[in-house]
Amino acid sequence: MVRNDPPLYYERHIFVCTNERPEGHPRGCCEAGGATKLRNYMKARAKEMGLKGVRVNNSGCLDRCELGPTLVIYPEGVWYGYRSTDDIDEILTTHVAEGGRVDRLMLKPGDDEIAKADIAERRAAEKAARAAASGG
Ligand code: FES
After folding, report:
1. What's the predicted TM-score (pTM) here?
2. Which member of 27, 66, 76, 116 has the lowest number of beta carbons within 10 Å of its beta carbon?
3. Is the Cβ–Cβ distance between 88 and 45 less than 8 Å?
4. β-strands 70-74, 54-59: how paired?
5. How many A from CA of 109 to the centre of ligand 1?
6. Which CATH superfamily does the domain covering 12-108 fall into?
């Protein structure tokens, strides 16, 4: 925070990407991984856990689509890729309630480039397999 900034509205403001793209889109989307359902779970679970000063919002694309579903927690600016209600529970307990970090789910700059390279490699292998299967 910069001096003279007003106090934060929330201790933790969590943005959960729930963007949806058509099936087969080259970047995929978080909704394909169940983002809305998991965001709703996270919101309900945070309330159930009695976490104060926490807001869980839907967001549009956060531009980490290949790593999705994704979310980011401010003011820390820590990003996570998650897959399940267990992942959400761990993020809420370890990060939000205890102030720690869930290393196994944390996204870091450069991860998306690795994911894009993995996807490109997989697509090339699939294309080669299709060509081989069709005799080409
Ligand atoms: S669709 Fe979720 S980060 Fe892009």
Report:
1. 0.86
2. 76
3. yes
4. unpaired
5. 15
6. Glutaredoxin (3.40.30.10)
Q: pLDDT per residue over 42-78, tens digit each?
A: 999 999 999 999 999 999 999 999 998 999 999 999 9
Which ligand 1 atom is at minimum distance from the Cα of 69?
2
Q: Per-domain residue ranges for the chain?
A: 12-108
Q: Probe ligand 1: pick from 17, 21, 66, 111, max atoms within 8 Å of CB?
A: 17
66 contacts 116 by C-beta, under 8 angstroms: yes
Q: How far is the CA of 21 from the centre of ligand 1 (A)?
A: 9
Answer yes or no: is pLDDT of 135 > 90: no
69 burial level (CB within 10 Å; 0-12, 13-18, 19+)? buried
